[in-house]
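Treating backbone geometry as a discrete language has practical consequences that deserve illustration. No coordinates are needed to read the tokens, only the vocabulary itself. For completeness, the protein is quoted in full, as a sequence line and a line of structure tokens:
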Amino acid sequence: MTSPCRILLVGLQDADGEAAQQLFRAAGHEVLAADGIVEAEELTQASPADVVYLRASRTSAGLGELRKIRMTLGDPPVVLINEERSADLALQAWHEGAADLIFLPLKAASLDASLARALRKLVGDGEEKESRAQAQLRYLDATGKELWRAIIPPRFTLGRSTDHDIVCPQMSVSRSHAEIILEGGAFFLQDLGSKHGTLVNGQIIDRRRLADGDHIQLGGATGQALTFHQGDLLQSLLGISEINSQAGVSVRDFREMGMLLQTLRTLSSISILDDLLSLVVDTAIKLTGAERGFIMLKEGDGDLSFRCPRNKFKQPLDGTSFQTSRRVPNEVFETGRRKAITDLDLSDQGDHSSTRQLGVRSIVCVPLRYWTLREVDVSSSTGKIDIIGVLYVDSPRRADRLTETQINAMETLATEAAMAIYNARLYKESQEKRILEEELSIAREIQQALLPAPNRQLPYVCAYSRNLPCREVGGDYFDYFELEDGRLGFAVGDVAGKGVSAALLTSVLQGIFSAQALLDLPPSQLIANVNRNLVRRGPGNRFVTLFFGVVNPEGVCFYSNAGHNPPLIVTPDGAMRELTEGGMVLGLFPEAEYEAGTVQLQPGDHLVLFTDGVLEARNRCGEEFGEGRLHALLKTQATSPAPAIMERILEAVESFSADTAQHDDITLMVLGYREAGPGSRH
């Protein structure tokens, strides 16, 4: 954790200033606030500030104020705060000696990270070795936002508890999971006896020295993923061992670094794939001084497809007239190694005559790599690098001025772009999935609204039903019809298949059946009419099973069964009878004929109707619930009221198939004829 220090805020007197004061004071720091440089000098006469946060005035970039603060207050580390996000401003701020540059509106993460970077300048000469051992962790928070966190020696902790330097909310991460310590100028990752382990580059570890680019996973594949970066942020991104006055890095290279940093900041905030690709290609062209560029992405069949061809003026190129050789992109994609050819005429990397005929003289192509993690078991995972495509730029001129720094920058851009592309694809898929889920949720509401109220009470009979689709919408159907002379019609149907297609045919069935029921025809004739209409209107490759019955106050039940699971009459003594008279399934043959059956119900009898989702419910071993279990349960519930019978069946099916996904739509209907007992209306 960061030791308490004295922080001076200059020019931050608004809501951003209040938020910064609250954050720093909550962390145990002393905070002073000044309107301007004169007041800042007065406040620090007795005791100087350790770190200064300077907000630029609205009429300047703050560079002049930055110089004056450093001269007046004894050159403390100064964090410049600005409204404008500019790579040129970042470069100028670094030249003026700013410890860091952050932008409005202020966020807790940016304030924490900037303070950590500023405090590095307070390290004494005797600790020079450790001061150079700068390191950061890069990770995504719970919302998917990319964060960078500086590792402050000597001990940096990670875990689920809120008192750690990085708090990981995932349940597979232990409360105190791991720590990073600095020893002899090297960083070591130490597991703290976590339950699900700590992995580095896919290998579970107890203690491991960290190297730049190491992938850390806390708590398995469902836990927190982080990437370790050693050295200054620019060094980490561009692979430069030292950046100081003796490094020999040109101002041009610094400008490219600032451009790269600005792009990397922007990448994490873009979720639209096409916009993301445009930014990446434009930046690659500008970094290398090329004339044009494009991205090739691996599609589902494994082949590469051209995406986003653009020129140096940030304009899209017509894909029909865009010509290039696929040789270099394919080679980079297959080998995973970058390729930079400054002059194809002088290249010793094979014959490129066909590419030269297209007017191309120089090429830079780098792979788009993405690190993926796959969980092996609870305590271990394996990782691998997937190449999802290539980033390519070319020019009709020789690239004599192309430097290693530019190529490194483009490769770094490609690596970060690969992650952003992967996340953008996930975002697109999640958005499409969300829209589909919303539409299906509406469809489910509509489908359920089209069904009748699940319970129906008449003076002599009660009916209780339940419809449980295995997906958002389903292919099961039930209905009631109150007919003349106090009779009750009832139906249960099952369309072959599941999901949306079955639900659509169910709606067709419901419309046809409701229209036919109004005619008050005998069950066998009504079923035949429904069948003929389904054959005419249905898709021809789907069938429907259906049971329709009519019961009158005297207990006489007329019915017809079109290939449906035979309903069961259950008497109070536990005896059972199946209702099978009828005919074949509906929707296949227009001239199919159907018979009618008749049964006399006695007081206390129950009629149990169900779809095959009840019998075919499966447990973890793949066994089906089956008729035997249903019959045994009904024997024990023979004297129970209809709602209790229905609930016992549903409970038994749910218990039997616990911890397994529902295999099929379930519809259940229980009718009780002149039930007797406490609370009965009959």
Observations:
- The longest helix spans residues 404-450.
- The two ends are 75 Å apart (CA to CA).
- Residues 124-133, 232-255, 375-381, 678-682 have pLDDT under 50 and may be disordered.
